[in-house]
User: Which sequence fits this backbone?
């Protein structure tokens, strides 16, 4: 009976507080099909490492000098317009129901552009920030994505041990990388010899994803790819 009760509650809430598209206000959607089709995509050819558009399809100038641990970063959308609004609503406005449609978009992307992976790992929050926010938006995305592609989600292996300043408050790539250097630790060997897809909401410099990858590979992960909802270009 419990699933039926949950469905009844959902239907009641939808009736009392109908969803409206973040882009155009159309009732019945958080992001309507029309607005979804208008989202700015990150289309190939890409830099194989950072995932930014690169006409040559080879390493971009920045990545040639970047001694990265992560195998690559990919994202379906640019961090602008409705995508930016959706990420902010999920991350800062407690609109957790956005995790499901956003994860569907991530799954659609993986179907078209598969990544090597047998486990999903969300980028963790420091316990202090998790307590302030009440949830980890990356974990919500990972759990919803796992329901769609049947990959297990491991939330307890990667831990954020340092409470750092928000990456958005740092001015340069060097500051971002220094800010999260050694901020993460892999607490057990549950990811040894696993192919990890690291899930986060936004990538800017890739510093956070790379710091996570360094810890995961130090603990024996075979490969680590970053998959984010949006990419600053």
Assistant:
């Amino acid at each position: 009976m419990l699933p039926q009760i949950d469905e009844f509650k959902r239907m009641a809430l939808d009736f009392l507080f109908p969803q409206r598209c973040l882009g155009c206000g159309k009732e019945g959607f958080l992001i309507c099909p029309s607005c979804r089709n208008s989202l700015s995509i990150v289309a190939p050819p890409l830099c194989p490492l950072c995932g930014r558009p690169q006409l040559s399809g080879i390493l971009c100038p920045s990545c040639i000098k970047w001694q990265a641990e992560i195998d690559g970063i990919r994202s379906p959308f640019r961090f602008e317009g409705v995508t930016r609004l959706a990420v902010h609503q999920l991350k800062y406005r407690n609109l957790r129901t956005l995790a499901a449609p956003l994860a569907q978009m991530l799954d659609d992307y993986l179907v078209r552009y598969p990544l090597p992976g047998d486990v999903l790992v969300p980028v963790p929050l420091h316990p202090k920030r998790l307590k302030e926010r009440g949830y980890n938006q990356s974990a919500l995305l990972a759990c919803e994505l796992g329901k769609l592609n049947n990959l297990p989600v491991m939330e307890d292996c990667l831990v954020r041990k340092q409470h750092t300043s928000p990456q958005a408050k740092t001015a340069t790539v060097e500051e971002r990388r220094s800010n999260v250097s050694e901020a993460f630790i892999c607490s057990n060997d549950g990811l040894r010899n696993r192919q990890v897809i690291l899930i986060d909401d936004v990538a800017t410099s890739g510093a956070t994803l790379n710091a996570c990858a360094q810890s995961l590979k130090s603990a024996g992960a075979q490969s680590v790819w970053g998959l984010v909802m949006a990419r600053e270009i």
Q: What stands out?
A: The beta strands are 72-74, 77-78, 119-122, 158-160, 184-186, 195-203, 223-231. The mean pLDDT is 90. The chain has two domains: 1-38, 42-231. The first strand starts at residue 72 and ends at 74.
